[in-house]
Design goal:
CATH architecture of the largest domain: 3-Layer(aba) Sandwich
Largest sheet: 7 strands, parallel
Number of domains: 4
Shape: globular
Number of strands: 28
Radius of gyration: 28 Å
Helix content: 25-40%
Oligomer: single chain
Strand order of the largest sheet: 3-4-2-5-6-1-7
Structural class: alpha/beta
Strand content: 5-15%
CATH topology of the largest domain: Rossmann fold
CATH class of the largest domain: Alpha Beta
CATH superfamily of the largest domain: P-loop containing nucleotide triphosphate hydrolases
Number of helices: 25
Length: about 800
């Protein structure tokens, strides 16, 4: 099969030939790092189908594709396209949409399989920095591992990513410098892409080797592509300026302008720079003369179900309509309008917006009107960005703004775009982020400066539950991705002036009220449904979405019983409950070893790089064998028997066979710390002990006591995470003939400066192997353990 055959099969019946640049991307000897292609030319298909082809025909192609978009809204379109293409090709490759919340589909359990991961820069870059937004803190190291090893990063429309572009370049440079398992290249794609954006300290050494993919003569000769590149559209200044945020009279005049410019029977797109203006304009258009009843509001402040409903309307037949949108339509949405009205925006954004007018060349002649914005209303942009764009628009007044004309104009004017300056991720920042332990107050490093810079609208995630007049119970189910709504942190602070919200405290093991000053990017906040804050009419299927002023109770999204898992706390162990039958430590250990061997066999030679390359399979297999030794501890066995009184006292159990939650007599008890200490004291090497300790994401670089722990009577006796110095583990079978002898646990490794200091040895291991490789090895063991636990919960998992 040729790439042309492959492409046509993926695209479906009646598909045309791939453009030459798409084939060059797929079959070239090496991937281009920069894809500088005009908007509307098919970059999404280029990247996804190109990776699929290369994965089958070019050795060394990473097994995961990470597709990163600048905004959350409408990433579902890329997700839907990818699933369609994979299905048309008859491939068994899962496509996942990473939205935060409790992961319904366990994509992270199968590192040996191919997968496509799609998400925003907030979700993906935060996970790649070991601080995943809207994700369990105990899952951060797994995401960090999978997104920094054996994967291809596609960064689509980086001109909208701000500081995220610099961070993506630094990560690419640091992966090269610090080492990964498997290749982990990055590709940046945009019609307005400047190579200098990637010139960061740790990526600079690769700048001279970067390859660019641009249109060539053969591309311009393709009739279908040329039709898009030369699609007729004219530019004109609108007789209106935005001087206020959402003034009623000004919005009414804007609505009248939109009404007067709409051509009946066609599609009109209006793009404004803020959600509040979009909401106000959408309401003002209701009932106006020359405004069709078919109107649509698109912005980033909707929950997934409502957003999908809007997307279905967007894709539905019927051309006589008006679409009101924010910047969200600049990337990741295939939309063509006869008439476009847009507020003044940075030049790179305007180029993307123009691409939504007569996009296909079949909706013309296209007409674009630009609306001036007063300097004091420049946000979320800077006055300087808008002034530069205004100068260029004046030069283009009444002129041709087709993609080809704009490309020629930029070349003639020697336009070189810059990104807003922001903090640059340094090597030491990345190494510090490797440690996922919060400080003793439960606080974490704020990475927002690396994800979106100083953007005041950077998001938190909120969700609503019907709580009545009660506070949420500790057992309140964790949020599902379907429930989460991205909202600006500043607006949440405003919302909480006279209303209440709750955040999960993993140390206190409960939902507690959040103070306004605590709101920071990446948090997930539970709001009572009766508090309002969201406008949506389930009967009409329309609404404004997130709105601080909305007071009506919010219709909550039901959580299926099968997914009603509570949030994880430091001392919780959800995989030890819920099985259809109990399992002994020996039985479960054999299952984990079997799963790990399957993973390692499928990965082939992937681990055969880096320091101690030949040893890591043995370290992993030893760690799997010893990972649950600590469950033989009296505290854990008592908890299991409390959950299931029918358990035999003649066995040491790993799984209760009951759905009752485990409540340990010692708060924050962690069996994996006991396992790791036992392994060390029985002569296993430190790398093996580290992997054992890290297999639940709670014990990694440091060993220390946490607030609220039960303390020994002897004040000099060491204790940490429910383990006391001198605790005894009985002899226990590990399956397959292996036995851990009775062991008295020694906690002296928790002392800093000690000869065998855990922290010093763990940091040395991190620096020797590199943070990406070490996290990958941690995650391999976690995947094997998670897979075994999941199968043990099914009727015939291990018959």
């Amino acid at each position: 099969m040729t790439f042309g055959d492959f492409f046509r099969q993926a695209m479906g019946d009646g598909a045309a030939e791939p453009y030459p640049f798409q084939e060059r991307f797929a079959v070239g000897e090496r991937l281009p790092e920069l894809v500088c292609i005009p908007t509307g030319a098919g970059k999404t298909a280029t990247a996804i189908l190109g990776w699929l082809w290369r994965r089958r025909h070019i050795s060394g192609t990473p097994r995961r594709l990470v597709y990163c978009l600048p905004m959350r809204v409408l990433v579902e379109q890329t997700f839907r396209q990818a699933k369609t293409w994979v299905r048309n090709l008859g491939l068994d490759i899962p496509v996942y949409l990473l939205l935060g919340g409790s992961e319904i589909e366990p994509w992270f359990l199968y590192p040996e399989r191919e997968a496509i991961l799609i998400g925003t820069q907030d979700m993906l870059l935060s996970r790649a920095l070991n601080r995943g937004y809207a994700a369990s803190r105990f899952h951060w190291p797994v995401d960090f591992a999978w997104l920094n090893n054996d994967c291809l990063w596609i960064l689509d429309e980086p001109h909208l990513m701000g500081t995220g572009v610099t961070t993506s370049a630094q990560l690419a440079g640091l992966r090269q410098a610090l080492g990964t398992f498997g290749e982990c290249p990055s590709v940046w794609m945009s019609a307005t892409l400047e190579k200098k954006w990637l010139d960061t300290y740790d990526f600079r050494s690769q700048m001279g080797q970067l390859q660019e993919l641009r249109l060539e003569q053969a591309d311009h000769q393709m009739p279908a592509l040329r039709k898009r590149l030369t699609a007729e559209k004219k530019l004109q200044a609108a007789p209106l300026a935005i001087t206020k945020e959402a003034d009623r009279d000004e919005i009414r005049k804007l609505a009248e302008l939109v009404s007067s410019k709409h051509v009946p029977g066609t599609q009109t797109l209006v793009i404004v720079n803020t959600v509040r203006r979009a909401q106000a304009l959408f309401q003002a258009l209701a009932g106006m003369k020359n405004v069709p009843p078919n109107r649509l509001l698109l912005h980033s402040r909707f929950r997934p179900p409502e957003r999908r409903h809007l997307q279905e309307q967007l894709q539905a037949a019927g051309r006589d309509r008006i679409l009101v949108a924010t910047q969200v339509v600049e990337a990741g949405v295939d939309l063509s309008a006869r008439t476009l009205l847009t507020e003044l925006a940075p030049w790179s954004s305007l180029v993307q917006r123009f691409g939504r007018c007569n996009r296909t060349g079949e909706d013309g002649p296209g007409q674009v009107y630009w609306i001036a914005v007063a300097e004091d209303r420049a946000a979320p942009y800077t006055p300087e960005e808008l002034e530069f764009a205004r100068e260029q628009l004046r030069k283009l007044e009444e002129g041709d703004i087709s993609p080809l004309a704009l490309e020629e104009f930029q070349r003639a004017q020697q336009i070189v775009l810059s990104l807003p300056s922001g903090q640059v991720l340094r090597r030491r920042d990345l190494l510090e982020l490797f440690d996922t332990a919060a400080d003793l107050s439960g606080n974490d490093v704020d990475i927002s400066r690396f994800v979106r810079g100083d953007d005041p609208d950077i998001d938190v995630q909120v969700f609503w539950r019907d709580l009545g007049d009660q506070e949420p119970a500790p057992e309140e189910p964790a949020p599902q991705p379907e429930e989460l709504c991205s909202v600006p942190a500043g607006e949440v602070r405003e919302f909480l002036k006279n209303r209440v919200g709750y955040v999960w405290d993993h140390l206190e093991e409960r939902w507690r009220k959040i103070r306004r000053e605590e709101v920071r990017p990446g948090l997930v906040i539970l709001l009572p449904a009766k508090a309002g804050g969201y406008d949506w009419d389930t009967q009409t299927g329309s609404g404004r979405g997130w709105d601080v002023k909305a007071e009506a109770p919010v219709p909550s999204i039901p959580v299926p019983d099968a997914e009603r898992e509570p949030e994880e706390a430091t001392g919780s162990d959800p995989d030890s409950i819920g099985q259809t039958r109990p399992w002994t430590i020996a039985q479960h250990t054999e299952h984990v070893c079997r799963e790990l061997q399957e993973i390692l066999h499928a990965l082939g030679p992937l681990l055969d790089t880096g320091p101690q390359a030949g040893d890591w399979r043995q370290h992993l297999l030893q760690a799997a064998c010893w990972h649950d030794v600590g469950k033989a501890h009296a505290v854990f066995q008592k908890s299991l028997r409390r959950a299931n009184p029918g358990l035999s006292r003649h066995e040491y159990w790993a799984k209760s066979g009951s759905s009752c939650s485990l409540r340990h007599d010692r708060r924050h008890f962690r069996h994996e710390l006991a396992s790791a200490l036992a392994a060390l004291q029985n002569g296993l090497p430190f790398p093996t002990a580290y992997l054992i300790a890290a297999h639940h994401g709670r014990v990694r670089l440091s060993l220390r006591a946490l607030p609220g722990e039960e303390t020994p009577e002897d004040p000099d006796r060491l204790y940490a995470l429910g383990i006391w110095d001198g605790d005894e583990l009985p002899a226990v079978s590990l399956g397959n003939g292996a036995v851990c002898p009775a062991t008295r646990l020694d906690l002296t490794p928790m002392l800093l400066g000690a000869a065998q200091s855990w922290t010093e040895r763990a940091v040395q291991l991190r620096d020797q192997l590199g943070p990406f490789r070490l996290a990958y090895l941690e995650a391999l063991l976690r995947s094997a353990d998670g897979r075994a636990s999941r199968r043990e919960k099914t009727e015939n998992g291990y018959a």
